[in-house]
Amino acid sequence: MKNNIMKFGLIAGTIIVMIPLITGLIIGYGPETYKTGEIVGYSTIILSLMMIFLAVKEYQKRNPEQTVGFLKILAIGAGISFIAGLMFGIYNVIYVTYIDPEFMHTYYQYYIQSIQSSGASAEVIEQQIAQLEKEKEMFMDLTFNFALMFLTVFMIGLVVSVISGLLQREKQELGAGG
Questions:
Q1: What domain range is 20 assigned to?
Q2: How many separate domains does the chain show?
């Protein structure tokens, strides 16, 4: 099981890192690409974590004598998500430190402009910007940034793992009943 987790975790992590990196090289890294970057980023996370389904299928194929239950699927998925999340967190630290050192400041300004042009009332805009100012230092911190990126991938991976486990359980129940 450990080899399976390592193999598919590294594949998922590589996908999570390489697609945004390649996309950035193609479309650039400026504020005009942030919306596209977010869409590509979240889509890539979900796509890469589909490796959980493949890992479970491969594990079942290699261990046909075992029933692969919900908890085992959750463990496989959590392991894959942990590795992929770790890789994505490290990539993001490298990205904001070396690839685009101005990213955090540029993105912060982009976010303020998005709030200002949101069409909300002046009071709401003022409150949102004041809240953002309170949180600015925390979001600029590399450790926080790493943890946030890691947890984003890990939590999405847990959701995919639960879905995979529930689908497998339903498949086993249908197989037993039919």
A1: 2-177
A2: 1
